[in-house]
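Question: what's this shape?

___
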Amino acid sequence: MVFRITATLKEVIHAEFLQKSLDRVIDRFPYYKVRLRAGFFWYFFERNENRVFVRAEADTPCESLPDEKSYGFLFRVQAYKSRIAVEFFHALTDGSGGLAFLKTLIASYLEMKGHEVTEWGDLINPEDEPDPEEFEDAYHRYNESGTPKPGRMKPAFQLPFPVRTIFRYSYLTGECSAAELHRLAKANNVSVTDYLAGVYLYVLQQIYTDLPEHVKQRQKKLIRIEVPVNLRRLYPSKSMRNFSLFVTPGIDMRLGRYTLGEIIQQVHHYMQVEVDARRLNQQLARNVNPERNAFVRGMPLVAKNGILHTSYSRHGPKRFSGILTNLGRISMPESISSKVESFSFITSPARVLKVNAAVATFGDKMRISFGSVTEIKELERRFFSTLTAEGVHVKIFRYADV
């Protein structure tokens, strides 16, 4: 999976200064200056001495990485008008790591342009030495031996929409007031993520319910979405690599229909139980223990690939009806944030899921972006219509506008 974080500044980007800033910043993030290699036993990251170049923004975001223009790198930096975008292959890092890189790049760029950066706050200063902990695989650090693996999940309802004949991603973004969403969530005594996940499940329920009976009979009755969790909030870690897992709120259509309020409350109570280090340790055990198994370690990579493929089939996209990723509220020191207009976050949807959602908030602007590989926009239409019916004013953008 490839994800993209975009910052729109209040001025047009000067490509030469952005390239100089990238040259300066990349050495502060050496764990991203790598390429992926296949060894006899494992894939591994190898130092990449090529220069990273700023590229013009592509017509289609989140294309596969690495590509022929990336010189082996697992990320890319793009610019267009007043926008700076970074795209990362998820094996390299997660949204938290990608955002940290982009914020440092923005601050360095503004500084080079002559804007006074009076403080770096919690931003990573490109003049500082990397902390050794930033390099670590935190999954291995926090995996506890003896922890039981989670139970196997049954397949979930899949959107019955055809995938495009020419496989391409498209994106649709709704912008709304973060304060309005927060008031709605507070009125329901839940978090914003709980509320949005509840709306997502409610819309999936509508789509399922409206299917013709002969189609509905062939569909799975469980509607379940994946909500990634930034593990740095639960485990002390400075790791800049991928360090996230997920929880899976859902509803069972065999039990009947639910109102929006009922689903939101179900999601809330589920999240209260599942976003817990002890529960997430079970996922850590499932992901890490095979790598510690002596038999598996001794297998050649070609055999491991078969095991990974089987594991992906058992625990992959077929177990979900959608994905909702919330990057959270993005903050920067005032001397930097005053030069930034907005942030957007998008992720590449899986062919099986067809559609997914990603959320980013900056100031009072919350942007909810749906990535899709189908022409049918029924999920997006119903999602934003539901928010509108709840009193949230939503402005819709296409990819080229955000």
